[in-house]
Amino acid sequence: MATNKSTVPFKGTEEQKQKLLQVISELKDERGALMPILQKAQDIYGYLPIEVQTMISDETGIPLEKIYGVVTFYAQFSLYPKGKYAISVCLGTACYVKGSGDIYNKLCEKLGIEGGQCTPDGKFSLDACRCIGACGLAPVMTINGEVYGKLTVDKLDEILAKYE
Amino acid sequence: MADEIKMVNVKVNGIPVSVPEGTTILDAAHKAGVKIPTLCFLRDTNEVGDCRICLVESTKARGLVAACMYPLAASDEGAEIKTNSAKVLDSRRKTLQLILSTHDRKCLSCVRSGKCELQKLCNELGVEDEKLYEGFRPEYEKDTSAVHMVRDNNKCVLCRRCVGACEKVQGIAVIGPNNRGFASCIGSAFDMGLADTSCIHCGQCIVACPTGALYEKDDTYKVEEAIADPDKFVVVQPAPSVRATLGEEFGMPIGTDVEGKLATALRALGFDKVFDTDFAADLTIVEEATELVERVKNGGVLPMITSCSPGWVKFCETYYPEQIAHLSSCKSPQQMFGATVKTYYAQKMGIDPAKIVCVGVMPCTAKKFEVTRDQSAVPGVPDVDISITTRELARMIKRNDIDFAALPDGEFDDPLGESTGAAVIFGATGGVMEAALRTAVEVITGEELKAVDFTEVRGMQGIKEATYNVGGLEVKVAVASSLSNARIIMDQIKAGTSPYTFIEIMACPGGCINGGGQPLVDSEVRNFVDVRGLRAKALYDNDAAKTLRKSHENPSIKKVYEEFFGEFGSHKAHEILHTHYVKRSING
C-alpha cells in the first residue's frame, strides 16, 4: 500500500511540541475541540504530518483515522510542508486554456511530487491556484511571489535552475 | 408518570398503519408489510441515510425523503406515503446508475456475486451494466496487508456500514472516510495498510459490507493442498458456533443446528480425522475454572477475564496494555486443540507433530491472526496451521460436489471429538461464563451442581451482570460482547471500581454466532430479524439435549488428564495449554 506520509523528514522542535500540548490541554474537554486544535497545530508547525496528528490522537484519545479524515476533508489543512521555494501554478480559466495544465503536470513529473506536496529535500513545494490577476501573461506561475509569465513547458528547466 | 405514547396514523401504498411518534417510515412500512429497499442502512450500526436508495414520497413532506431516517411526527398525521410511484422508482434507478458509474462491475468472479446487495437492487430495479454516466473512474490498489482480510475499494459504494461497525459497534475507528468529493474513499489514516493500524481483526466490517469490497483472505487452497499431500496428517476442528450457522449457506433457516451434517461433510472433504473444537472448549473450561479458583484462593489478580476471543485479546493488549494481567492465561479453544493434537495425540499415535496439519473452522477472522501468535506447544511447529471461516468451509463444500442438505448425520472422531453441553454454548455471549460456572461451583463447593442453567448470563444484551452465592462466597460476574461494551467494563477496572470476580468478554456483538467469519446475512433480514438470538438458540437447544453438560465430566477430558496432563492446572498443562500476552500501543 502506498501511504500518504510526508517524505520530508519531520523537524518539529521541543518548543513547538510544548506549545501544541498546551493548546490541547486547554481545548480537549470542549465539544468539537478537534477543529480548533488542528487549526492551532497547523499554525505551530505549518502543516499536519503524521507525527503531529499522532500527538493529537495520543493526547485527546481521538482515533488517528478520525483526525486524518477531518484533515483530508478540509482544504485549509495540509499534510505537507511548504518548500524553501513554493511554486504556485495558476489553473484559472485564462491560464488553463493557454496550457497551464501541461505546465502543472510537467512540474509534477520533474519534481517527482503531486500537487500539494513537497520534495523530500524540502526545496520545492507545488500548489495550484486560481487567477492571480495576470491573465495577460497567461499561463503564469509564481515562485515565492516572483511571477513567471508566457510560460511554455520548455522554459521550466531554465527557471528551476535559478533556484538550484 | 410517563408521557402517553402518541400514535401517528399514515397510509403506506394505501395500507393504513398506526405507529408511535418517532418511528421511521422504513419501520412503519415494514409494519404495513411493505418492503422498502435499503443499501446504507444497517440497524444500530449505520443510520446515516446517505445512499438515497430508500427514498419515498409523502404528502406531508417536500420532495423525496429517506425512509430509513425520516421519523414520523404529529405533523405527518394522515400522510399518504408512496414507496413505489414512478417518481420514486426513477430516482432509485438513477441512484443505482450513479453508483455503478464508479463501480468495478466484474460481477462473475466477485466473492459476493449472488449475495451482493447492490447486485440484488440492480436486478430488482432492472438497472443494467450502465454506460449512461460513464466517465472517469477512480482506481484503487487492493489493501492485502492484513493477515485476515482484503479491502478492494473498487467495489466500495461508500455506504459507511464498515465504518459504523468499526467506530460505533467496536469503538476502534481504524477505518473511516478520507478526502472529499470524488476523491472520497474509505481507508485508514495516511492511507496506511490495515496491517499497520491497531485493527483487531474482528471482521465485523466484512459482515457489514453490502458488496464485495471487503472479504476474508481465502485460505481454502492451503487446506486442499494439505489434504492432497500424502505425507501430511490433516485434522480438522470446527468451532462450537459453526454448527449453528453453516446451514444458512445451504439455504436452511437461520438457527438450524447442522452438527451431524457438518461432521459428515468434513469427512467427505478428506480430512484424516474429524475432531471438534468443542472438546477443547471443555479443556479450556477445566483449565480456566481451575485458574479462577486459584486466583480467588491465593489472592491473584481479579477480576479474571476470559481469553477465548482473539479480537478481544488484541484489543486488551492494544487499548488496555496495563490490564493484561487480568486476562486468563488460558489459550483459546482453537489453540488448546492444536497444542493437544501436536503433543498428546501425536505421541499417542506415534505421528511426527511436524507432519500434522491442524485446521480450524472458525466463526472468526481474528483466528487467522491468532494462529500467527508466538505461543506454540512444540517449538517450531504451530499449534494450528490454518484457520478458515464458516464461509470458506461452505465454499469448499460447494466446490467439492457435496450436497450438504442431503448428507446423513455423522459423528466426530474419538477421542478429541467428544464434548459436553458446556462446550457448545461457547458460541454465544455468556456461554463461556455459564460453562465455567458449572465447573467452578462444583470445584469450590465439592458438591454436585443440580441446576446447570445460569439463565441470568444468557441473552443478547451487550452487558449482563449476575451475583451467585458459591459455597458461602459471593461471586459477582459480568458478561460483555462488542468492544464498545468491553471498554465500559475495562474503564471500571482501570479506575479500580470493578465489582466483579470473573468477566467474559467477546469481541463480536452477541458472541461467536455473530462473528466476522459467519455467513453473510442480507441487511433486509438483519434489520428486522434477531439473527443472533436465533443462532444462539440452536446452541442452547443443543446443550439442553445433551446428557453431559459439565466440562469436567467429559470422559475424554478425564482420559487426557490421566494419560498426559496430570491434574487440572498442572505444570505440564500450563506449558502446553497456557500462553502470555504482549503490550501493544494504539498508534504504533
Describe the protein's architecture and organization.
The complex is a heterodimer of chains A (164) and B (588). Chain A has 164 residues and is α+β, with helices and mostly antiparallel strands. Chain A folds into 2 domains: 14-73; 85-161, Glutaredoxin (3-Layer(aba) Sandwich), CATH 3.40.30.10. Chain A has 7 helices and 4 strands, in the order ααααβααβββα. In chain A, a hairpin with a 2-residue loop joins β3 and β4 (146-148). The longest helix of chain A is centred in the first third of the chain and has 14 residues, at 14-27. The radius of gyration of chain A is 18 Å and the shape is elongated. The two termini of chain A are 33 Å apart. The model of chain A has no long low-confidence stretch (mean pLDDT 93). With 588 residues, chain B is an alpha/beta fold. Chain B is built from 20 helices and 17 strands. Chain B has helices spanning 25-31, 86-101, 117-125, 161-169, 204-208, 220-228, 242-245, 259-268, 277-298, 310-319, 333-349, 366-370, 390-399, 421-424, 431-445, 483-495, 523-526, 531-544, 555-565, 571-577, and strands at residues 7-12, 15-20, 55-58, 65-66, 80-82, 149-151, 176-178, 185-187, 214-216, 233-238, 273-274, 304-305, 356-362, 386-389, 463-470, 473-481, 502-506. In chain B, the strands form 5 sheets. Chain B has a 5-stranded mixed beta sheet with strand order 2-1-5-3-4, with helices on both faces. Chain B has a 4-stranded parallel beta sheet with strand order 11-10-13-14, sandwiched between helices. The radius of gyration of chain B is 25 Å and the shape is globular. The N and C termini of chain B lie far apart (52 Å). The model of chain B has no long low-confidence stretch (mean pLDDT 96). The chains are: A alpha+beta (164), B alpha/beta (588). Chains A and B meet through α3 and α4 of A and β7 of B.
